[in-house]
Design goal:
- The protein has 447 residues and is an alpha/beta fold.
- It contains 13 helices and 12 strands.
- The protein has helices spanning 29-37, 87-98, 110-117, 123-134, 138-148, 151-175, 180-216, 230-238, 282-297, 359-374, 385-401, 409-427, 433-440; strands at residues 6-10, 17-25, 47-52, 58-67, 78-85, 103-105, 218-223, 256-262, 265-271, 300-306, 326-331, 349-350.
- The protein has a 6-stranded mixed beta sheet. A 6-stranded mixed beta sheet has the order 8-9-7-10-11-12, with helices on both faces.
- A hairpin with a 5-residue loop joins strand 3 (47-52) and strand 4.
- Helix 6 packs antiparallel against helix 7 (180-216), helix 7 runs antiparallel to helix 11 and helix 11 packs antiparallel against helix 12 (409-427).
């Protein structure tokens, strides 16, 4: 479809609501609002109008806004109708707009794509906007907003600018190749830029791997022997009765899931079957296998033991030295006496869920683990697999320069060109038609 078409869509959620917003973008936007609501109001000023269909019948009274291009979200002439959110009002207004010449319903992401094509947003800002719409937590919202505001674009543009600077120096070295001293001196100026960028991109990729935990969420698994209080701790963490609590060992047969927020990061809690060497039944054995699978796949494991099930650092899944994201816990300390065993691990936390002993310290440990794994930071961080893949290729290209002899500036220049094009793909400065469809399809209709 051509951008000569005028597109329209409901931009607010479907279903009954107090207010609904219908967005229109394209060359016929002004004609549409004049046809339905009279003369166009002053730009960017909400005006109360009667909105009528093509036969002049009143549909609703609402606010009309007019945004002449290029000073609009899409860069085109745009309009908004803010009306009452009943399904009847919305349907009749959409029908009336669709009857205007040159208008068609918008597809998913059509408004954001026009904003990109008209230079109002780069690809990283588009992706940040998509993440902002999908944000579930405060930390996700803040990270997405930084990206939508262009912080990531500015970082990538700075890297590309440095690569172009290094390319210019290399081109100069080629031009002065017959003057050996000059060429060597110019190359000596270019190579430190490459080394600096290689270090910065390498560090950024490490943070990018961590940042995916913030965008995608983390998994926290409660594991340990039967009857150590995993279900009680699950209920305390969620502040509701998610799991059945009973003194009979093996009450939990299958894993239970619940979603909570910790430090602004979405965390999926898993309560699993108790682990023991000799299950009482085939059903319990199946539950134990699922518990082990959940434990091994989790980002954070809370390993619970208690005085009457003390394992002295051994037992199913006790791999604390090689698994720093494991938090070892000794529960039911309110039932201890001096003769009962103590955990060998000095880092183990002593708690009692029923008496609420040591739970504040436990939450501090959990928050620290979540913050570390999710890469919480105020710096702009690329959090998408697309970013990681491109930056990994760019880094490999920069590393390849080290294997090129300094007296071969043509090869160095080609590597720099490839790296600059790679960084340009991140923001859309270089043709990336093959990825546009997947990016914009993430949006809902009307954005």
């Amino acid at each position: 479809m051509s951008n000569l078409d005028t597109i329209f869509a409901l931009s607010t959620g479907t279903g009954r609501s107090g207010v609904a917003v219908i967005r229109i973008s394209g060359p016929a936007s002004r004609t549409v609002i004049e046809s339905l609501a009279g003369p166009a109001p002053e730009p960017r000023r909400a005006t109360l109008r009667s909105i009528r269909d093509q036969d002049g019948l009143l549909i609703d009274r609402g606010l009309v806004l007019w945004f002449p291009g290029p000073d609009s979200f899409t860069g085109e002439d745009c309009a908004e109708l803010q009306v009452h959110g009943s399904s009847a009002v919305i349907a009749d207004i959409l029908r009336a707009v669709g009857q205007c010449p040159g208008c068609r319903p918008a597809e998913a992401g059509a408004f954001a794509r026009r904003a990109f094509e008209n230079g109002k947003l780069d690809l990283t800002a588009v992706e940040g906007l998509a993440d902002l719409i999908e944000a579930e937590t405060t930390a996700q919202r803040r990270a997405a907003l930084r990206q939508a505001d262009g912080e990531l674009q500015r970082l990538f543009d700075n890297w590309r600018s440095q690569l172009l600077q290094a390319m210019a120096l290399v081109e100069a070295a080629i031009d002065f190749s017959d003057e050996g001293d000059v060429a060597v001196g110019v190359m000596a100026q270019a190579l430190p830029i490459v080394d600096k960028l290689q270090s910065e991109i390498s560090d950024h990729l490490i943070e990018t791997d961590r940042a995916r935990g913030l965008r995608e969420g983390l998994t926290l698994c409660l594991a340990g022997p039967p009857n150590v209080g995993k279900s009680s701790l699950m209920n305390w963490l969620t502040q509701r009765d998610v799991a059945i609590v009973d003194p009979t060992p093996g009450t939990t047969r299958d894993r239970l899931e619940s979603r909570i927020e910790i430090e602004g990061v979405p965390v999926t809690l898993l309560d699993t079957a108790g682990l023991r060497a000799e299950p009482a039944s085939p059903i319990e054995a199946s539950g134990i296998e699922r518990a082990r699978a959940a434990r091994d796949a989790a980002d954070i494991v809370l390993w619970l033991e208690s005085s009457d099930t003390c394992l002295q650092g051994s037992g199913p899944g006790a791999r604390f030295d090689s698994q720093p994201q494991w938090i070892r816990i000794r529960n039911k300390v309110d039932l201890d006496d001096e003769e009962q065993c103590e955990l060998a691990d000095s880092d183990a936390l002593s708690i009692s869920v029923t008496r609420e002993i040591g739970l504040d310290s436990l939450m501090d440990r959990i928050r620290c683990a979540v913050s570390e794994l999710a890469g919480l930071t105020e710096q702009p961080i690329a959090s998408r697999l697309r970013h990681s893949a491109i930056l990994t290729d760019v880094l490999s290209t920069l590393k390849a320069i080290a294997s090129v002899r300094k007296d071969e500036p043509e090869l160095v220049g080609e590597h720099l060109r490839q790296a600059a094009n790679g960084v340009g793909q991140l923001t859309g400065r270089v043709d990336v038609e093959e990825v546009l469809g997947s990016i914009f399809s993430e949006f809902c209709i009307g954005k």
